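Still learning. Show one?

>
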Amino acid sequence: MTRVLAIVHGPDVGPELFAEVLAEDGHELHEWDIRLNGSPPQEAQAVLVFGGDQNVGEELRHPWLHEEYEALRRYVERGTALLGVCLGAQTLAHAFGGVVSRAETPLAGFYETELTGAGADDPVLGVLPRRFEAFNANEYRFTVPPGATELARGPVPQAFRLGGRAWAVQFHPEIRRDNVLTWFDGGSTRPVAEIAAELDRKLGGWQEHGRRLCRAFLAQA
């Protein structure tokens, strides 16, 4: 059994499908809303950091972002297995010298993504096909931090590995249909009905990729 800490940034951006995988495989999951509880504990064997509607650069509005950057640095320094998703990927990139900025075009839906050579050989990202459609929901993007290894590319950088135990993905491998549709209730560059129809066509296959990715990450813990 692995003790897994999920750092979340709101009620609609949690582990979702990953929580289901963890329960099926007998792991222990603890959720930590960093907005409410401050700096997260360090004793977890594996850490998942999920998305949110906040952004790097909004530290005056969300001062807990500074605590998140410091916590991520400590996890990496300790060699704790870590996976950042969307905002979690961006905060990890920023914490280690990457640049997070507004994307040229907001992303909402599935986009062609390709593993790099290093990604195909990676023990976590390498469980995915060399080319696949990944679900994105983001208005910001990261650059791969200095010294990190790019693992996947798409309309924006999609994944990197930092050292031997920390991974980041811009896409969302953890989504469920109803949950993700709440992200677009307030408006989107695409009609919500169009996003829902695309999810109906593609979510089943995407969730199979998400399950494999989650289990590959846990194997590294």
Q: What stands out?
A: DSSP finds seven helices and nine strands in the chain. The first helix runs from residue 17 to 24.
